[in-house]
Amino acid sequence: MKVKKRMATKLVTIGKDATISDATQLMKEHSIRHLPVIEGKRLVGWVTEGDIRQAYLASLLEQLTVEDIMIKDPITISTEANLEEAAELLYRHGIGGLPVVEGDRVLGVITVADIMAAFIEVMGILKESSRIDVILGGKPHAFENISKIVRDHKSEIISVGMSAHQDRKKRVYYLRFTKCDVHAVAKDIEKAGYKVVSMTE
């Protein structure tokens, strides 16, 4: 999934000459934690709630502007980047959001919350569903066999996750599928020779 599908496009921005109080007020009004700092249409900085908290410790707060505290060379991402790339940048740098740019023009903002919402949607977590965690043991055609068992119970797989175990025979597959008799599915999966680790109705 591309960043452009999940980024916020109703931008709230601020100029570099604005006061820190202005930035604080904008964040409160719009319930946001990041502000792109722009000059014309060009991104010149990025100011966060954390930057503002640090500024409040300064003794000459009233003399500071957004330009004094903003990140002048923020980490950015393009609209065509994958969400996985955005997630990696956010995690690696310990930040909560990224300006989405085309050249030096800011087109949107992508945050940890946006990526989490996408993950929840893709995994079908909020849909009425059942889940089985199963070890397939590296057997040939295992996933096709499991899928058929699920379909035989009038259900469809919504999402599949997988543990990162290096030994393929020990990897756990997390199967989420439309609501059905999960105990009956688990029983048939075990009859087929696979190990069910856990299940959730």
For the biggest β-sheet, the strand order reads 7-8-6-9
Mean pLDDT: 90
Helix content: 25-40%
How many individual domains? Answer: 2
Instruction: Please provide the ordered H/E string of secondary-structure elements.
Output: HEEHHEHEEHEHEEHE
Low-confidence stretches: none
Radius of gyration: 23 Å
Number of strands: 9
Structural class: alpha+beta
CATH topology of the largest domain: CBS-domain
**Biggest sheet statistics:** 4 strands, antiparallel
- CATH class type of the largest domain: Alpha Beta
CATH homologous superfamily annotation of the largest domain = CBS-domain
Number of continuous helical runs = 7
- Described by the principal axes of the CA atoms, the overall outline is elongated
The fraction of residues assigned to DSSP E strands is 25-35%
CATH architecture label name of the largest domain? Roll
Give the key terms.
alpha+beta; CBS-domain; Alpha-Beta Plaits; 7 helices; 201 residues; 4-stranded antiparallel β-sheet; 2 domains; 3-stranded mixed β-sheet
Describe this structure in words.
The chain is an alpha+beta fold and 201 residues long. It folds into 2 domains: 3-119, CBS-domain (Roll), CATH 3.10.580.10; 124-200, ACT domain (Alpha-Beta Plaits, 2-Layer Sandwich). Helix content is 33%, strand content 27%. It has 7 helices and 9 strands, in the order αββααβαββαβαββαβ. It has helices at residues 20-30, 49-55, 66-69, 83-93, 112-123, 142-152, 182-191; strands at 34-39, 42-48, 77-78, 97-102, 105-111, 129-135, 157-162, 172-178, 195-200. A 4-stranded antiparallel beta sheet has the order 7-8-6-9, with helices on one face. Strands 3-4-5 form a 3-stranded mixed beta sheet. A two-stranded antiparallel sheet has the order 1-2. Strand 3, helix 4 (83-93) and strand 4 (97-102) form a beta-alpha-beta unit.
